[in-house]
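job 3f2a | input accepted
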Amino acid sequence: SDGFNAGGECVEFCISGECWFPKVQAWTCAAKGSSDPFHGSEKHNQKWTIKKVKGGVQLVNGMNNKCLTSVHAAGWAVGLDAGIKAVAAQVTDCAAPGSKNQTFVMSTGGSGD
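job 3f2a | predicted structure (113 res):
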């Protein structure tokens, strides 16, 4: 989204002190050379390598070489009521290529920056 004219949003591995589990979040994309200590550029927490696997792609984070992973979570983990069951994204050790919870289909072909 670019509702704030900030240049869009990026998916990043959260490294600020407020993240006490391997949280993935959408955040304003960091400009090249940004000095922000928690978002993008030099930290590479907004950089992802797209690896083709059977059934789609596996997304590997540039900061820690871990993979974007679909996990089942309680609602409180995603800002909803605790009793709600949700599917959330986390960054975990990479599983075998093609693993169901780490294989995604990218509608744009992964050509974005």
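job 3f2a | The first strand starts at residue 9 and ends at 13.
job 3f2a | closed
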